[in-house]
Automatic annotation (TrEMBL):
Subcellular location: Cell membrane
Protein's name according to its UniProt entry: Molybdate-binding protein ModA
GO cellular component: plasma membrane
Binding positions (molybdate): S43, S71, V174, Y192
Function recorded in the entry: Involved in the transport of molybdenum into the cell. Part of the binding-protein-dependent transport system ModABCD.
Amino acid sequence: MLGAVIAGLGLVLAACGGGSAGSDAAEGSGASDQTLTVFAAASLTETFTELGKRFETDHPGVTVRFNFAGSSNLAQQIVSGAPADVFASANTKQMGVVADKAMIVGEPQVFVTNRLQIAVAPGNPKGVASFADLAEPETTLVVCAPQVPCGSATQKVEQATGVDLKPVSEEPDVRSVLGKVISGNADAGLVYVTDVAAEKGKVDGVNFPEAEKAINDYPIGVVTSSKNQELATQFVELVRGEVGAKVLETAGFGTPAGS
């Protein structure tokens, strides 16, 4: 009888021990799971998505979640308290909106540059050959809204050339502009060279020399409120490092002055 009781007690203890070990293992596996939230300009969609996958491969248990949109929109979201670990802007002005409120760790670092290009339908049926051609009444033009970096760059070129554009719409980001051209709802759109390259075959790109008057610097930084600052710093290092530079250069981004 005593032997049966001891055996039974042994089974209960074994079961408890097994349950405890299983619980600890589950907690241990879950504890390493982390999500890194990156707010990035819409023009970085393809390159950052690729870099995000590489980062996840190098950091098992980490998921990189992106919020791609116009930089002005992203800056306002961060200032309003949206949870973000990293912010990559398409110009220094919108990064300044966040940094000026002491919401970026240290000094934001410029990692690439970009310039405008005219996106047109394949074959360029309207024969757009210059920035001035965009002001022709028969050309349906779409641009980015003025507060968005690509829209701000467009205004700089207008001021430098004296060309007064009459777009039929002002979009919240370059992706929306590109979408209008691809869908046939616009004859031309002012986007970045990298956006045209990303949609090769769906649009053609028309270069214009005045684009050099409005080169955009892209800064990146870790958000002060991030709870994953070490991980966020590692992502920034990937973007600014050799791997990131190669991916970004292949996509058509330029190298910052002094790099």
